[in-house]
Amino acid sequence: MTLTRHDKGLSTVIGRPNKDASGKGLDDSMKTMMQRLRTWDNRIQVSSPTERNLAKAFQRLDTLRGKLGLPDNVIEKAAYIYRKVQQQGMIRGRSIASTLAASIYIASREAGIPRTLAEIATLNNTSYKELSRVYRRMVLNLDLKVPMVDPRKCIAKIANKMRVSEKTKRHAINYMNGVITREITAGKDPMGLAGAVLYLSCIQGDEHKNQLDVAAASGVTEITLRNRCKELNTKIPQLN
């Protein structure tokens, strides 16, 4: 069984080859009857508006799985959250795409996988504003306790995008440990904070990366990146 199928994977499947158990071909009358059975089998699998909604949503979920590179446990959790939202009647008046994208974001956060709302919105061809609104409503109505993203994992993600050296990456993670110890992360966007830490580590390690590239890899603006860098330089010295 799987939650990523509208019928949980328990549907009947009538094979396409027109052969019997011994491998012999069926006669014309039997072929016609089998084709009618296939047609009705497909129809009864999606026989209600709820099932049609789930079928469309999970077809889209399968596409997003490849685009975002998410593991099976996150996809299963996203399907579970989407079903919960549908059961409470929260989908009415909202698009399947935005509700599904918000479910994926929540499931990724719970699994500790750094995926931003902006990244999911872009790959899902959804408005960021609409997605963030649906996400907030889901968290409020379902009373979800969504954990914070570990900014150290964000450092690894940004560093891999920019092809930063392993030495600089380790320095950035040590620097971030100091930031977390001093409780500077509260209320800060993990990706923006991770981008600032990585940028400062590149400067200290004589690895030349400009702010525009770091900001783009982090999914934040240059202004946000500069503000985080100023704040870090003020509150915490760079670690060796």
Account of the protein in words:
By secondary structure, the chain is mostly helical. It is built from 11 helices and no strands. It has helices spanning 28-45, 49-68, 72-87, 96-110, 117-123, 128-142, 151-162, 166-181, 190-204, 211-218, 222-235. Helix 7 (151-162) packs across helix 9. The chain is elongated and about 80 Å long. It starts with 27 loop residues before the first helix and ends in a 5-residue tail after the last helix.
* Helical amount: 55-70%
Quaternary organisation of the protein chains:
single chain
- Average pLDDT for all residues: 83
Catalogue the unreliable spans: none
Helix and strand composition category: mainly alpha
The DSSP helix count reads: 11
- By DSSP, the count of extended strands is 0
Please tell me how large the radius of gyration is: 24 Å
What characteristic shape results from the CA principal axes?
elongated
N- and C-termini, Cα separation = 51 Å
The ordered H/E elements are HHHHHHHHHHH
* Percent of sequence in beta strands: under 5%
Q: What's the story with the biggest beta sheet?
A: none
